[in-house]
Design goal:
2 copies of one chain form a homodimer.
Chain A: E1 7-13, E2 21-27, E3 32-37, E4 42-45, H1 49-58, H2 63-75, E5 83-87, E6 93-101, E7 104-114, H3 118-204, H4 222-225, H5 239-244
Antiparallel strand pairs in A: 1-2, 2-3, 3-4, 4-7, 5-6, 6-7
Helix pairs in contact in A: 1-2
Chain lengths: 256, 256
């Protein structure tokens, strides 16, 4: 047998010039069931698929649309619609509501038969509401757990972002220090060679004083741009561009 | 008047040798109210604070503990406890359940008076359950919205982490290229000076061939550790340390 999908709804309807009623409905693909109670007496409405088809045809609607419309108006009382629960003889009732369509007022109306056992029907309605409460409570717990889990993920990601940003800063410091070492080594060699060259020149020509290059401290900005250096043809990008790529720290996520 | 906090519960209790009953309770700091229905007939139990105090004293419990215990056993049927709704004459009932304490079976029991208007009482219970359903539905929606919001935050943070990691790689490439430029500049000067030194030596001594230093491509690893370089006293950390600090890219968060 094909698995039938069904939906449930339960609503409280305020009836003008009457007391409230509670309507529990089961919505099937081709028909529906209603259970109605005023708190003491209960009624049922179990039309056949054929009956529903005829009613839908009267409204020029496909069955699915007719059922969706019915569910909307019985699942929650709609403003602008007039609901009624009138006597239909022999303790039966007629449940109705109005629906405006293309300037015309249509009346949705179905007969509800007195339940042979109101107590049993009322218990079923109460049972349904209890079950629905339990399901929804479980759902709240589940959704909350999902939220907390995602929150943990977000915090974890934030922590990682900050760690990466910190590592970036550490790396920059280390790489500059490293480069400073290499640069100073080269400069030392330059000084050694210049000294040798000076000696030779002094032997052959009149002595010429030359300032000694001192070992420099590496300055991230200045050392690359120092004007007293020879043009550096091999430079591929400016240090300003490098610095401009530094990311700002991510803002911490806070949950109120 | 002091703001009184109260809690609500509603449960279905299966009573042996009887039909199910529904118990709606309101828990106040010093007393409680019960509304009971079997689907048709309803009862009320509205003890005074003094009455509750006396019952708690009989069980050697402070009032708050007595109420918590009562709420636990009436808010949800407890396995191992025997529940009953016995006749108490004149249409009234006596609601009870059992409680094991230190090897002794205690009986919680309160008289429930027949409601003067069962229909009204039943409607109130149905109303409460409907309201609870609506509140829980709203809560589910809210929790889901919180989850979706946090999910967006997590995805945003993940994207930012990846961007930062990418920027880190780009920075490394750029800074190495930059260093390469500066380093090559120094090496050019070294070659220049060596050439100058070589010429006069040729004039004075027998010629001595010397390999020309070619401009090197900068290799992140080997250029710092090349064995043919003179010892580099200024190096502050090894390149292995630098490389070891490279972070792995954060794993992407996925939700099933």
């Amino acid at each position: 047998m094909e698995e039938e999908t069904e939906r449930f709804s339960c609503s409280k309807l305020l009836i003008p010039k009457g007391e409230p009623i509670f309507v529990k409905a089961t919505w099937f693909p081709t028909h529906f069931h209603l259970a109605v109670t005023d708190g003491i007496t209960a009624w049922h409405c179990h039309p056949s698929a054929e009956e529903v088809k005829q009613r839908a045809a009267q409204w020029d609607l496909p069955v699915s649309e007719y059922l969706n419309l019915s569910e909307r108006y019985l699942g929650l009382q709609q403003p602008g619609s007039v609901y009624a629960f009138d006597d239909a003889g022999d303790s039966h009732k007629r449940l109705s509501w109005t629906f405006e369509k293309e300037g015309m007022t249509l009346l949705w109306r179905w007969k509800c038969l007195l339940s042979p056992d109101s107590k049993k029907s009322n218990v079923e309605i109460l049972d349904f509401l209890m079950g629905s409460n339990i399901n929804l409570s479980d759902k709240v717990v589940t959704e909350n757990e999902l939220f907390e889990k995602m929150k943990v993920e977000a915090e974890k990601c934030l922590t990682q972002s900050e760690r990466i940003a910190n590592e970036r800063l550490e790396f920059e410091s280390e790489i500059y220090a490293k480069f400073l070492g290499v640069l100073n080594s080269k400069k030392s060699k330059l000084r050694v060679l210049r000294d040798k060259l000076s000696k030779q020149e002094n032997s052959e020509k009149s002595p010429e004083e030359e300032d000694t290059d001192k070992t420099e401290s590496f300055d991230e900005e200045n050392d690359f741009e120092r004007s007293d250096e020879d043009p550096q043809k091999d430079i591929t990008s400016s240090s300003k561009e490098v610095m401009a790529n530094k990311p700002s720290h991510p803002k911490r996520i806070r949950h109120k």
